[in-house]
Amino acid sequence: EDESFVIMKAWECDHKAQCLDLSDESNCKSLDECFQCSGTDMCIPTEKQCDGLDNCPDLSDENLEICNKTSGPDTWKCDDNSFLVRKRDLCDGKITCNDGSDEKDNHCKCGSANMWRCKNEKSCIRQELVCD
Fold this sequence. Notes:
The protein is elongated. Strand 3 and strand 4 form a beta hairpin. 6% of the residues lie in helices and 14% in strands. The protein is mainly beta. The mean pLDDT is 75. It starts with 33 loop residues before the first strand and ends in a 6-residue tail after the last strand. The strands form three sheets. A two-stranded antiparallel ribbon has the order 1-2.
């Protein structure tokens, strides 16, 4: 409030205080309008819950028990029903699903829906990397 400390606009109302006087978190949405991440004081806007993006450090905002949701056009449901994962994050070398199904061969091999076979026919890349 006293303008002695300047922060990026994106940091205002991000549910993490950057200003010592907490002014960057005042006049924001109430906690009723946000999702409380498990095991932390972090709170995310409700519209970011169940969107296929892991906004909480523990991925609790994408837990299917909470989301009670099937995968949409841009998301994929883990084989063990633990999380929703963005399709573009399948086969990215980072395990998101509790069972690791987002990185298993049946989803990441050439010929699967999210993979594109290169002209040399010996290798594949993820579909979204074509013409990027």
